[in-house]
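Practice problem: predict the structure.
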Amino acid sequence: MPDQASLDAIRAAVDTIVPPAQGMPGALAMGVDRHVIDLIEQSFPGFVDLIAALLNAYAMEAGAPFADLSSDERSAVLRAMSTDESQDIRDAVDALIVFTSGGTYSEWSGYDRATGKLQPPPTWSHTGFHGPSLGHADYRENV
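Answer:
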């Protein structure tokens, strides 16, 4: 299990990647940090701590742990990491972005774990997505 400082860094990254905007909750308010942490830990045990250590190392240029930086400073850290010469560091940022976006815009954020019910996530209506389609008649072959 990742330590608290690592969890705080990942939560700050999730909040930076999809912040609240135009009346919509951000990824952190939707609990997407749980999605990101769970997926990273399931895929690569221990990598939450490693990614957090990278975030904090880059943040030290601003003089504070990643979670303590302003939103603009955190964005600058993520940009710096995403252009690093090391593919591994770029991959760490990519994982944060992909898992945060997936948790925010997929059905994951509309699933109520307590009741087992799935509601369309708030991001769907905001983006104009009406949910999955079982197909379109125009694309079916007439047989």
